[in-house]
Specification:
One of its GO terms (biological process) is threonine biosynthetic process. One of its GO terms (molecular function) is ATP binding. Pfam families: GHMP_kinases_N. With 322 residues, the chain is α+β, with helices and mostly antiparallel strands. The protein has 11 helices and 13 strands. The strands form 3 sheets. The chain has a 5-stranded mixed beta sheet, covered by helices on one side. A hairpin with a 6-residue loop joins β10 and β11. α1 packs parallel to α2 and α2 packs antiparallel against α4. The two termini are 22 Å apart. The chain binds adenosine-5'-triphosphate and L-homoserine. Adenosine-5'-triphosphate binds next to α1, β6 and α2. L-homoserine (HSE) binds next to β2, β3 and α6.
């Protein structure tokens, strides 16, 4: 019933919203956690290296373990014992999808260690469960399938996703501050209602952003201009700015220079799109100073778009990626 050896799953970081696509758009980024799951005769052994080591719990409340347990419930099997080893590279609470990566690692890890897991839970089942655990689909969707995704729920609450490939000239530059902000807190800053004009504004910009990211054969400068216009948002970033002033200031500086910059997910990281062949963004100039008024520096990194979602390396060669 269970795989005879360990299975390693590697979920990518993700950036949600991308400006106007609140709770819908997401982008998978090539920065991966690594979670190894093994069924053992009894007990629970959890070890963590990297991000969160020493602070995340090592019991059943660990997010990967919780997600594994929920997935085993859906799969209709419970392992006698579990060994889970996490090598974490995605920073926690920074808007780069760490919680979705943990959830998708658990869901896909459980599916991989059950011999007929893919029959018991199809791709929609995995997306459904991961969305339920995360609370919204915009990070788990690209984490599972890679690329640039639009995720939505139908009237029955069924989640679906459309995946597309950003043009290869597009890259993501992330600016990560040293202090976290929980998604829960950031969601609490949003109003219950927004003006109709702001909703209409975002709908137009979201449509534009999808085209600016994916249309082939755009002149690089034109693509940058379209990405700039297409990353404008009125539904969440301003409301959340008081909780991430250095990030808001950095976005202001980047946009004043014509760079398409947004809050990554619920923040406080900042994501700016670069376009090969268009005016370059010298990340170190912006990262070094942060917001002079507040003095918080950012760590900047260029992250390629991840074409693949969670990669599963397992014992059943032939059915798994190695
Ligand atoms: N690999 C992990 N192992 C265990 N717990 C994790 C892991 N990754 C994230 N978490 C939990 O999730 C919390 C961060 O989730 P949160 O949704 O606030 O931020 P995020 O997912 O990094 O950002 P965003 O959702 O905006 O992209 C951590 O503080 C931790 O409790
Ligand atoms: N759409 C989510 C992404 C963060 O998980 C938010 O902005 O709250």
């Amino acid at each position: 019933m269970f795989a005879p050896g360990p299975v390693t799953v590697r979920p990518p970081a993700t950036s949600a919203n991308l400006g106007p696509g609140f709770d819908a758009f997401g982008l998978a980024l090539e920065l991966r956690d690594e979670v190894t799951v093994e069924v053992i005769p009894a007990g629970l052994e959890v070890t963590v290296e990297g991000e969160g080591a020493g602070s995340v719990p090592l019991d059943d409340t660990h997010l990967v373990v919780r997600s594994l347990r929920e997935a085993f419930d859906r799969l209709g099997v419970q392992p006698p014992g579990l060994r889970v080893h996490c090598v974490n590279r995605i920073p926690h609470g920074r808007g780069l999808g760490s919680s979705s990566a943990a959830i998708c690692a658990g869901v896909m890890g459980a599916r991989a260690v059950v011999a007929d897991g893919e029959l018991r839970m199809d791709a929609y089942g995995a997306l459904d469960l991961a969305t339920e655990l995360e609370g919204h689909p915009d990070n788990v969707a690209p984490c599972l399938v890679g690329g640039f995704t639009t995720a939505w729920m139908d009237a029955d609450g069924q989640v679906d996703v459309l995946r597309s490939e950003p043009d290869e000239s597009v890259s993501a530059i992330v600016f990560v501050p040293s202090t976290p902000l929980s998604t829960h807190v950031a969601r609490g800053l949003l109003p219950k209602e927004v003006p109709h004009a702001d909703a209409a504004f975002n709908a137009g910009r979201a449509g534009l952003l999808a085209l600016a990211l994916t249309s082939a054969q755009l002149d690089p400068e034109r693509r940058r201009e379209l990405l700039y216009a297409g990353t404008a948002d009125r539904l969440h970033q301003d409301y959340r700015a008081p909780a991430m002033e250095p990030s808001a200031a950095l976005i202001g500086r980047l946009r004043a220079a014509g760079h398409p910059a947004v809050v990554s997910g619920a923040g406080p990281s900042v994501l700016a799109f670069g376009v090969a062949g268009a005016a370059a963004l010298r990340a170190s100039e912006y990262a070094r100073s942060g917001n002079p008024a507040v003095g918080t520096p950012f760590v900047a990194a260029v992250l390629p778009v991840a074409a693949r979602g969670v990669v599963v390396d397992g014992v059943r060669a032939g059915q798994r990626d190695r």
